[in-house]
Amino acid sequence: MSKVYVGLGANLGRPVRQLRQALTQMSAWPQLHGLRVSSFYRTPPWGLTGQPDFINAVAELGTDWSPDRLLAELQRIEAEAGRVRLGERWGPRTLDLDILHVEGVSRSDPDLTLPHPRIAERAFVLLPLGELTPELELPGQGQVRALLAAIDTSGCQRLDAAEPD
């Protein structure tokens, strides 16, 4: 079984509800074990700035699925949430589920690069990831705690657990 970290994000519709629904769907997978979830964070958009803030989180899980199978299942959940892939990078979305890291796996191909190549640049990933596992060493990038210390997180805000949908 591999330990996997999945980034969750949304900024259209009802983002908090959409992240909770995705986590509910993931927790129902019989191949998933030990789901842990970070706090939710309100974060400014990255890349294309003229859009609503995002709600982001990270989930840690154990699974026997291959990264490709996990990617297919995550994309199915995104599609069910109304995600349409139009080729626009960093644009607004109803739900975004990214495999950030799979323990013991490094790969780079057109469908999936692991660990995610831009983790070190993104406060919206490093804040929730650091909450779950600050000591995690990402191959070729460094330790999460050190990566987090090197970026600006001033625009990010942890949400109260009772944040309305």
Automatic annotation (TrEMBL):
NCBIfam families per record: folK (TIGR01498)
Keyword Isomerase attached: no
Keyword terms: ATP-binding, Folate biosynthesis, Kinase, Nucleotide-binding, Transferase
Enzyme Commission number: 2.7.6.3
Name of the protein described by the UniProt record: 2-amino-4-hydroxy-6-hydroxymethyldihydropteridine pyrophosphokinase
Enzyme class: transferase
Cross-referenced InterPro entries: Hppk (IPR000550), Hppk_sf (IPR035907)
Transmembrane segments annotated in the record for this chain: none
Gene3D superfamilies: 7,8-Dihydro-6-hydroxymethylpterin-pyrophosphokinase HPPK
